[in-house]
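Q: What does the predicted 3D structure of Xaa-Pro aminopeptidase look like?
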Amino acid sequence: MSCSQLLPVAHLREEDSKPILRPAQALYTPTPPQTRGGLSQVEYALRRHKLISLIHKEAQGQSGTDHTVVLLSNPTYYMSNDIPYTFHQDNNFLYLCGFQEPDSILVLQSLPGKQLPAHKAMLFVPQRDPSQELWDGPRSGTDGATALTGGDEAYTLEEFQHLGPKLKAETRTLWYDWMRPAHTQLHCDCMQRLAEVKARSKNKVRAVQQLIARKLTSQAFIETMFASKAPVEEGFLYAKFEFECRARGADVLAYPPVVAGGNGSNTLHHAERYEAVLEVQRDCLTLRSPGTSLDNVYSMMLTLIGQKLKELGIVKNIKKNNAFKVARKYCPHHVGHYLGMDVHDTPDVPRSLPLQPGMVITVEPGIYIPEDDKDAPEKFRGLGVRIEDDVVVTEDSPLILSADCPKEMNDIEQICSKEIS
């Protein structure tokens, strides 16, 4: 039986697009040790309990009840000699303990003689070094690690070297990411990847963080729209958006801004296509209800885009059996994806899964006409439109997390036409 990656990725994560990670390696600006803001130790304990419960459910019927989970934090990467890149914690590691420091290991081990999901959580962290902390900022050490995370035990990284062989000898099943082995002796048989991921449950803490993140992002977009009057360079708008996010409390962006200028003489045709994409998106949003799937909505999106392409005169005489192919040509991506702690961190979760209340997804149809597309009228070439919203699936109408970000043409035009005081 071959090793597989640790666990169903999306089921372990929850979205928080307001990044609040703080680099432990910050030269000359030491930052006190901390965990992810806004979440309690109880929340992380519940997440670990949920993970072990999933393992227990998957392992039922198999001999042995001894299980160990090993997760690595991200290491410190250096751009040159002693100058580190900005640190961003591994999402699986962060989700389960909230520890924001690099070069650490989380071990969840079942308790001998007790039934799952009973387990203990152990952290292995670098030993404190006052001379190094003078430059890189304070580290938690073993005492600080347990105090911050609520874990059961903490040890130095050096002690993990001795634990590795012991885990292999005493553990019936070891769960770890085989792409990033924590120890050279930990290569052992693991269970096959779970074939299907259960829908994520509702979480009030997650919902609050999502709303804060989306409001912050929407405000930054509005300020950037306001500053986008020509002449303006793309680099300025990139910096403006990042500044507005950071000024409102974000430490890093969830994704790099994509700022693209183009031919202003095509404004009229750009508006026509923008309105067409907006209508497609509105229709897709009405389909985001429990029981349907992203694939179902994707099929509907392609049908609607095919109709719009014909109405706009971008393509003519679309045959019914060829409509999907034509639509995929001008919208080469899916209608949406699941949202986790990062924007695209759930690539292995099938989009065929029925949506359930509490799941967070995107709705992002688009139409893109390449400049060299000889099949499309010249006036439409070189124009691209995509409109995206982040959505929480509910029993009733979907909750649009990004509702504060204007997308109606009149609202956008009004913002962009305001004079700078």
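A (community wiki): The structure tokens above were generated from the sequence. Confidence is low (pLDDT under 50) at residues 1-31, 184-199. The longest helix spans residues 204-226.
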